[in-house]
Specification:
- The chain is about 70% helix and about 0% strand.
- The protein is an all-alpha fold and about 525 residues long.
- Strands 1-2 form a two-stranded antiparallel sheet. Strands 3-4 form a two-stranded antiparallel sheet.
């Protein structure tokens, strides 16, 4: 699930340097210049300061003068103080409405998903799954790379990209270390395999997160904006219609590129890789009670997500969804019309996927694995260690989108984009994917999506496509920052292995990024309108 992939481990590694100082000063300068300048040129007060706030947050998210989650909290301070709200809203009402964005039902989905992932990690179920996949694919060098990529991508479908990479990294290093013992530390076959395995692991962690609704934080940014600005509900199965084909097509292509072009690996077995995998599996022993409970919770949540709404099998044949049996709504207990609009929207939104995740995730805190001593399937200490910063980061993106819409800035953006020249829809998609991929090389994935997706929601209709198609394409492209060690935390993790150099990462990452622009644009052009039922 995400993207803690975006909590900017790279920024912490770099320390506070010129980039951070420039970003700090530039962000504040842009904020004041745009807020005062746009108002002087006739833009309404609320829209002027909304644009200024977006500029400040964008610069700070890219340059990281403060932690990303701190920047994500800026709407709570800036919007009420500078009147970024409808004119009828008071300071306290604006503060309440902005704070409410951080408690969006989509955050419940990610919170519950992180609880389930934490339980899987607590009982080492991920290791059993990974070793099983690697054993199944085989242990010749190309197959070993494929096994690590498939296992990492599968984990990343459900848990944070960074966590998936961290889980797989020690297993990969154990195999490579054993091969170095057998063949020598500087054996060319081992070095080549190390390069391919580490790159494959990093790429698969980022690509796998695109497959499901909870795979990475950028997905949440799109889903929230689609609901808030376009009134589109994206359920679990709807996302799968686009996400899974992208993962299924991209992973084999990346594997072929790594093993046949970037690093030409021998096809025969080398060293004792097979013995290492078998020894690791034997060390795990039979499944423990904790693993069984974690696996049951994971499968239960996945089935409830997938079969929550009716699934059309063929023409008039469909599988009914269990959510239709739930007749209760907030309107039955709360007089919605008497509530502020922001709260009314939140209570009216489809929170089914979030409720499933939260119920299953919180249930793990209560279900005992052993009674004496008492030990739940998810210990409070393990639950406290999940990526809380991601929830704040997502909330900041939601709050920024709320400010863009409620201030009227979205209407102004749409009006300005009318002047954009007519582009072929596919060319517009290519440009959106290319710009997003370029920005995400130097900025957090979630921050990139938070900046671009609301803008596309506001003015994308003038680019010849439904805004949702452009937003989806930008969201997917935001996970393809694969060139630099600091591009995403999975990149930074594998760079620490010692098998990779910066030029090697840039060269291989550029090839994958370049191809991803065309692949994402093509899939979104054909699949998104069908999956979302767009005209």
């Amino acid at each position: 699930m995400a993207s803690e992939d975006d909590l900017s481990l790279p920024g912490e590694l770099r320390g506070y340097g010129a980039r951070q100082w420039i970003g700090l000063v530039l962000g504040v300068a842009l904020f004041l210049a745009l807020g005062l300048g746009l108002k002087a040129h006739g833009l309404p007060h609320a829209a002027s300061w909304a644009a200024a706030s977006v500029a400040l947050m964008s610069v700070w998210w890219i340059c990281e003068p403060v932690p990303l989650w701190v920047t994500a909290c800026m709407p709570v301070i800036l919007f009420p103080c500078f009147g970024v709200a409808p004119e009828s809203d008071s300071f306290l009402q604006t503060l309440f409405n902005v704070a409410l964005q951080y408690f969006d039902p989509l955050n419940w989905l990610f919170l519950g998903g992180m609880f389930i992932a934490a339980s899987i990690e607590q009982w080492n179920l991920h290791k059993r799954v990974a070793l099983g996949v690697i054993s199944f694919t085989g242990t010749s060098p190309p197959r070993l790379v494929l096994g690590f990529m498939l296992a990492t991508a599968f984990l990343s479908l459900w848990i944070a990209n960074t966590t998936a990479a961290l889980m797989m990294y020690p297993i990969a290093m154990a195999v490579l270390s054993r091969l170095e013992e057998d063949l020598g530390e500087n054996h060319p076959d081992v070095r080549r395999l190390g390069i391919a395995v580490m790159l494959g692991l990093a790429y698969a962690a980022s690509i796998g997160g695109l497959g499901t609704k909870i795979g990475t934080g950028t997905n949440g940014i799109f889903i929230n904006n689609a609901h808030q600005m376009l009134h589109l509900e994206i359920d679990f199965v709807t996302w799968l219609k686009v996400g899974i084909p992208l993962v299924v097509i991209t992973l084999p292509l990346v594997w072929l590129y790594l093993t046949r072009v970037a690093v030409k690996l021998p096809s025969g077995h080398i060293g004792a890789g097979k013995e290492v995998i078998q020894a690791e599996r034997a060390r795990l022993g039979p499944m423990t009670r904790g693993e069984v409970v974690a696996l049951t919770a994971f499968v239960l949540a996945a089935l409830l997500w997938i079969f929550r709404k009716p699934i059309e099998v063929w023409k008039d044949v469909s599988i009914p969804g269990w959510w239709e049996l739930v007749t209760w709504t907030w309107a039955d207990v709360v007089p919605l019309n008497s509530l502020p609009e922001a709260m009314r929207k939140m209570l009216k939104s489809d929170c089914g996927d979030g409720m499933v995740a939260l119920v299953v995730g919180l249930g793990l805190l209560l279900i005992p694995v052993s009674l004496r001593p008492w030990r739940p399937a998810l210990t409070p200490r393990r639950a406290a260690g999940i990526g809380w910063g991601l929830l704040v980061l997502l909330g900041g993106g939601f709050a920024m989108a709320y400010g863009i819409q409620s201030s009227g800035l979205s209407d102004r953006i749409a009006a300005q984009m009318k002047d954009v020249g007519q582009l072929h829809p596919f060319v517009a998609l290519l440009i959106v994917c290319g710009v997003t991929t370029a920005i995400t090389e130097v900025a957090s994935n979630t921050a990139t999506a938070s900046i671009l997706v609301p803008i596309l929601a506001a003015g994308g209709a003038h680019l010849g496509l439904h805004p949702a198609t452009l937003m989806f394409a930008s969201t997917l492209s935001a996970s393809f920052g694969l060139m630099l060690p600091a591009g995403t935390p999975p990149n930074a993790i594998v760079y620490a292995s010692g098998y990779l150099t910066v030029p090697r990462m840039v060269l291989s990452g550029f090839a994958v990024d370049f191809c991803s622009v065309f692949l994402v644009a093509t899939l979104c052009y054909y699949l998104v309108p069908w999956a979302l039922g767009l005209p």
